[in-house]
Amino acid sequence: MAQWNNGRRFEGRVAVVTGAGGALGGAVAKALGAEGAAVALGYRSSADSAQEALASIEAAGSSGHTGQLEVTDSDSVDAFVAEVAERYGRIDVLVNAAGRIDPADAVRFADSDVAAFTTLLDVDLLGSFRVCQAAVPHLRESGNGAIVNFSGSYGNGVNQDNVVNSVAVTYCAAKGGVRAFTSALARDLAPEIRVNAIAPGPIAANWEDDWEIPKEHIDEALAMTPLGRMGKPEEIAESVLYLASDGGGYTTGQVLEVSGGWIMDG
Ligand SMILES: NC(=O)c1ccc[n+]([C@@H]2O[C@H](COP(=O)([O-])OP(=O)(O)OC[C@H]3O[C@@H](n4cnc5c(N)ncnc54)[C@H](OP(=O)(O)O)[C@@H]3O)[C@@H](O)[C@H]2O)c1
User: Residues near ligand 1 with C-beta < 6 Å?
Assistant: First the structure.
């Protein structure tokens, strides 16, 4: 019987992580590095925190590099991916963790504006598309190519009065787009490359500071969470690693909800 997890599931593999200066992308990058991957950490403006994640990867005995990456710019995406392929000679895993976190995307429909929605789609949906398009030729050659996109649990079957969860119309639409992109791409790229998405629920990251979500809404979100607490970035990372690893080898086209029970399928 195959031993799926020897603690070094990504030894000899190369992973690209976008949004690696962020809370979840950083956690994923560190976890991949801790399990042996060489990691290319793409950041937009958070060079220092991407560098911190790289230091942790190097401390674990793995290698990697950081590079500036703007996922709304095809030239930037193409250059970043080409550099990774040239530097390491292969790409096995792509994690699209870059996402726009902006209070303008957490408003009711009447307050939504088309410019904010356009930017959101350009980062979360088209950004993932651009990086996939650049990386797929390399992932195809890997033999174990895996893509993990970032959707979200927001808007699914939760209290409709909660401003965080069900009235962020544009955010839910963008993350729904990532779901559809994921399953369509999984069919298109099978059997060579597996494509899945992670759908985080409320994860302790930067809700109050970056999203400016009022404390009362955070309390409300927690009250609706069966597991009674926010998730940890490391718990998202572990789920991403499962999807990207050989143990997830029969899983494709899925959206894995990691939401403390916000969403219960089945
Ligand atoms: N935290 C949660 O509770 C939660 C829940 C559901 C879904 N998610 C999703 O999980 C993903 C990661 O979120 P997070 O919580 O880790 O937020 P975060 O800490 O703000 O990280 C997101 C990262 O995306 C990068 N980014 C934004 N626009 C970009 C662009 N145009 N080009 C390249 N990079 C760009 C940012 O880079 P710089 O910092 O370098 O500028 C940022 O570090 C997002 O897709 C988010 O929607 C998060």
Answer: 18-19, 21-25, 43-46, 69-72, 97-101, 123-124, 150, 152, 200, 202-203, 205-206, 210
Task: List % helix, strand, coil for the chain (3-state, nearest 5).
Answer: 45, 15, 40
The predicted-structure confidence for 160-200, as pLDDT tens digits, reads as follows 555 555 568 899 899 999 999 999 999 999 999 999 999 99
**Domain covering 14-258 in this structure, CATH number:** 3.40.50.720
Give residue 48's pLDDT: 98
Query: Position of tokens 């560190």?
Result: 30
Q: Phi/psi class of residue 260: alpha, beta or left (left: φ > 0; alpha: ψ in -120 to 50)?
A: left
**Closest among 87, 89, 86, 91 to 18, alpha carbons compared:** 91
Domain coordinates of the chain in residue numbers? 14-258
CA of residue 263 to ligand 1 center, whole Å: 21
What is d(CA 82, CA 134) in angstroms, rounded to the nearest whole number? 8
Are the C-beta atoms of 170 and 113 separated by less than 8 Å?
A: no
Q: Is 231 helix (H, G, I), strand (E, B) or coil?
A: strand
What residues of the chain score a pLDDT lower than 70?
1-2, 155-167, 208-211
